[in-house]
């Protein structure tokens, strides 16, 4: 075999290896995870919280899962993001799922352009870093936190409507293991864990669990959206309702022999029927890497 052919084999092997390295470095982020891309019940904090758990690098892909005809997604400028102005979007996609490749470093802004969707929280801002810089160090783990719902307001029919509890939840990060404490007067209030549908419609006849004794402590045991309301007549409709997004546990997992949570601990499952996230990436890239390395070894051997 001539030297030229041997050299060509080396070039081909190196090209395959370099291409594979790019593929392996690429990460696909499903925006909102199981929540998908919609008007979030808790306002913009839902997507801000999700973004805080991710590291975005050049070459990564964002996947927006939504129902075509009911939602859309536009990439806009910072000004368009801040003002929810979609008049001159950088890019607009109306068919779900929609993919965006992050091809440059810097800030990216996305909004829903349909009526009032953006002002109600369907907006996402992320920062993309250079892949050569490597991922940012993960945030320091924290222990579970106990939150008193509404703080000094407690769990009541709020004077200003549901904005009171949306405001309370804003900028809070809830992780698996955190606890919510609902303070109310026994016999005048209660707290129910409900589905998204029951939350939206204030259907008090459809509940997952109801707690009637104060204070009620509920431990968050699953990720995703969690919904709470009161079953007392008109209380939910007048704003006694809370929606939060819970992300993965950031502390070191407990040993397998650790005690189970108390009986009052619940994990409100995300609502069914939402957009389905794409299946996880296969292990093919790692196999391709191994194959490319083997090919390179063979090619080098031919040169000797």
UniProtKB/TrEMBL annotation:
Residues 253-275 have a biased composition (Low complexity). GO terms for cellular component: plasma membrane. One of its GO terms (molecular function) is electron transfer activity. Residues 253-283 are annotated as: Disordered. Pfam families: Cu_bind_like. It comes from the Eukaryota. Keywords: Disulfide bond, Glycoprotein, Signal. Residues 1-25 form the signal peptide. This is Early nodulin-like protein 1. The gene is VvCHDh001133_1.
């Amino acid at each position: 075999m001539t030297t030229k052919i041997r050299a060509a084999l080396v070039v081909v092997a190196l090209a395959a290896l370099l291409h594979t390295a790019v593929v392996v470095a690429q990460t696909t982020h499903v925006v909102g995870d199981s929540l998908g891309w919609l008007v979030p019940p808790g306002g913009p904090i839902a997507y801000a919280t999700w973004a805080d758990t991710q590291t975005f690098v050049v070459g990564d892909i964002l996947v927006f899962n939504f129902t075509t005809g009911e939602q859309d997604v536009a990439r806009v400028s910072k000004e368009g993001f801040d003002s929810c102005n979609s008049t001159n979007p950088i890019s607009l996609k109306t068919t779900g799922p929609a993919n965006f490749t992050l091809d440059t470093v810097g800030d990216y802004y996305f909004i829903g352009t349909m009526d009032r969707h953006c002002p109600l929280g369907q907006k996402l801002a992320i920062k993309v870093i250079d892949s050569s810089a490597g991922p940012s160090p993960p945030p320091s783990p924290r222990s579970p936190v106990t939150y008193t719902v509404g703080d000094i307001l407690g769990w009541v029919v709020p004077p200003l409507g549901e904005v009171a509890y949306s405001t309370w939840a804003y900028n809070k990060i809830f992780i698996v293991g955190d606890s919510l404490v609902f303070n109310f007067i026994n016999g005048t209030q209660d707290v129910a864990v409900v589905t998204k549908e029951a939350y939206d419609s204030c259907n008090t006849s459809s509940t997952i669990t109801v707690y009637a004794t104060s204070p009620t402590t509920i431990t968050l045991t699953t990720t995703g959206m969690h919904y709470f309301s009161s079953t007392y007549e008109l209380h939910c409709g007048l704003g006694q309702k809370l929606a939060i997004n819970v992300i993965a546990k950031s502390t070191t997992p407990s040993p397998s022999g650790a005690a189970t949570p108390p009986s009052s601990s619940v994990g409100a499952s995300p609502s069914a029927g939402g957009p389905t996230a794409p299946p996880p990436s296969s292990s093919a890239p790692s196999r391709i890497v191994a194959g490319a390395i083997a090919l390179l070894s063979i090619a080098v051997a031919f040169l000797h």
